[in-house]
Amino acid sequence: MKRVWVCGCVSVWAAFAACAADIELHGFGEYRYGERVEDQSLEGYRSLNELRLQGDALWYHDLFTVQLKGALIYDDVTAQRDDVDLETGEGFFDLRQANILVSPLSWMDLKVGRQVLTWGTGDLVFINDLFPKDWQSFFLGRDDEYLKVPSDALFVSVFPEFVNIDVAYTPRFDADRHITGERLSYWNGQAVVGQESVLLTDRPDDWFEDDEVAVRVYRTMGAFELALYGYHGYWKSPGGMDPDTGQWLFPGLAVYGASARGPLGNGIVYVETGYYDSFDDREGCDPFINNSEVRLLLGYEREIATDLTMGVQYFVERMLDHDEHVAALESKMAPTDTVRDEDRHTVTLRLTYLAMNQNLVLSCFARYSPNEDDGYVKPTATYKISDRWQATLGGSIFFGDDEHTFLSQFRDNNNVNGSVRFSF
Amino acid sequence: MRIVLITGLAIGSLAASVMGQELDANAIVEKANRASYYAGKDGSAKVKMVMSDGRTREFAILRRNADEGMGQKFYVYFTAPADVRKMAYLVHKRPGGNDDRWLFLPALNLVKRIAPGDKRTSFVGSDFLYEDVSGRGLEEDTHELVETTETQYVIKNTPKDPGSVEFSSYTVWIDKESFLPRKAEYLDKNGTLSRRVVADKVETVQGYPTVVESYVEDLSAGTKTVNTFADVKLDIGLKDRLFTERFLRRPPREVTR
Predict the structure, then answer these.
(1) Which of A97, B81, B172, B247 allows an S-S link to A69, with CB 3.0 to 4.6 Å?
(2) Cβ contacts (< 8 Å) between B125 and chain A: which residues?
(3) A58 contacts in chain B (CB < 8 Å)
């Protein structure tokens, strides 16, 4: 597969070179450094120490648009520096985009290849956006761009008169670049572990068999945007475990949801909901597979003072077979004291302040779960020194009392980080 | 009876002349608004902003007037510098209400809805304000014709809700012939001249007098932004469907050429 990609890239580059006049070439070089501020016994004290050279080529043509974007990385912290894995992003090269967009009909767009896909309404809360995410990058403090993992997909959009329809077909399951213990320590069901206990997964990886389909049907009514969503594939991060092998699994998942977004008062209000059908264990009697869930998000954003914007969200995830799950664990003599509550409530707050003619952006995202009594704070400051130079300072701070809850398990990974970027 | 009639007529004509003057000021700003923001049915331009510290903003802009009424749609596609390149910005302007605004962030492939903001804040970090670019609602000020020179009308504008803006009043010099505003000067709450917007180069494009260079000076901060418009085209037949989420995610050829 790697060879196919390399050949593809080379031929696209050759085509680019042939028509150099119509092509935009840009990119940046960046150095990023981060250090852990808490216990450093499970991972090293350096959370980040990397150089990145990212290139972005765009070819606009009347008949198509081709995009190619990739990064050469020297990552001083990782152990896997030499082996390039385009699926997991490991190694010295990360291919972010390699796609072609065509419009065969005036009411149809087709985009084929490696692309970043996003939809839905939440701010760092995703219900119907089941495209892969890189939580590791995000918590380590890399740029927000890297939270989204590219998908190798066919994306078809049709725009008939009354609705718009998007269909994303991913022929081979694209999992999240989830936390594994290699770079960030986590709760493995018994203890918080790190590099000495890297999570092993059994990922569905057969082409055209272990595939994913995501659909969105949307339209606007007045100033409101309404959407329906569907997804058929797998839990994107490990959502189950094989007790015999100890390997983590990606059980089957279907999601059906809806969202609405529009103006309210002097702000933007949105609501999104989804039913998560964990169809490999619909009754909830397998204690090692995620329950089905219902998720609901309410959000509101508005400017509260000049150049100061506030966004608040309430998010709830309800397990649909909590009692069965606890009973199943008991029947296996497994501990039940670390089972999560039936409902996990979360509130988030984001404040963004633009200062110095918008050259300094101060942003703070905070997330807190009142029933798990844990949370996460991510402050960032971005300063645009000039059109070419930019510097950032940021942090990732997890807090909570218990080792096993959703966010508190990452406490040892609390870090501060900074970067300098030169764009061309 | 005759007296009543005559008196009636007299009062009527007096009222008409007072009304006539008021109507003049309002008619002038109405025409100026149309000349500066509504030329043609639609249009496109490439814009470059240069700020006094050397920073730049370059973008292509598309505009389409609503078939009826004063509504408008704008599409802005940024080409430089790097931190905003490929971002796209969509505005559905609703006169008298809050504009609907969306921002497309290409790295995340994310279409973000933007909360209606203070319209008197900086447009993309320049000295231009959002309202300078999209136009200020005529109904938000009272307009007074303070002087008529040989070539220009001078209109003083006083906000009806002084608490909502940073200025106490502003004066606009409008060309009699083209109805294009050529200069606007803003007085702050102390009555000191604090801000100046000047349309210093005007060319006729397809029969429409069009500003091709303007600048704004923030006199209290001592900064300046120069705005140049290139490739101005009018009445190019832009379709309404360009101003939708589809084309936020995949910029149309009209802005990528």
Answers:
(1) A97
(2) 357-359
(3) 86
Q: Which two tokens stand for residue A419?
A: 């970067």
Q: What is the ipTM of this complex?
A: 0.89
Is A281 in contact with A251 (CB distance < 8 Å)?
A: yes
* Domain-wise residue ranges, chain B: 21-256
- The predicted pLDDT at position A13 comes to 57
User: CB–CB of B195/B221 below 8 Å?
Assistant: no
Q: What is the DSSP letter of A19?
A: T
Give contacts of A225 with chain B, Cβ < 8 Å.
Answer: 113, 245
The pTM (predicted TM-score) of the whole model is 0.90
Fold classified for A2-423: Porin (2.40.160)
| Confidence tier at A89 by pLDDT (50, 70, 90) | confident
Set of chain B residues whose Cβ sits within 8 Å of the Cβ of A163 = none
Does the bond joining B81 to the residue before it have cis omega, within 30 degrees of 0?
yes
Partner A contacted by B239 (CB < 8 A): no
Select B21-256's CATH number: 3.40.228.10, 2.50.20.10, 2.40.50.140, 2.160.20.80.
2.50.20.10
Q: Which residue has the tokens 């339209």?
A: A219
Residue A271: enclosing H or E segment and its boundaries? strand A267-277
Give the chain B residue nearest A219 (alpha carbons): B245
What are the tens digits of pLDDT across the range B118-139?
888 888 889 999 888 888 889 9
Per the CB < 8 Å rule, is B108 touching A117? Answer: no
Q: What is the pLDDT of residues B194-244, one digit of tens each?
A: 999 999 999 999 999 999 999 999 999 999 999 999 999 999 999 999 999
Using a CB–CB cutoff of 8 Å, tell me whether B163 touches chain A.
Answer: no
> B2 CB near a chain A CB, below 8 Å?
no
- CA–CA dist A42, A67 (Å, integer): 40
Whether residue B56 lies within 8 A of chain A, CB to CB, comes out as yes
Shortest CA gap A57–chain B (Å): 12
**Is a pLDDT exceeding 50 seen at residue A388?**
yes
- Alpha-carbon span A233 to B213, nearest angstrom: 54
Condensed to tens digits (0 to 9), the pLDDT of residues A133-156 reads 999 999 999 999 999 999 999 999
What pLDDT score does A6 carry?
53
Q: Do A223 and B82 touch (CB under 8 A)?
A: no
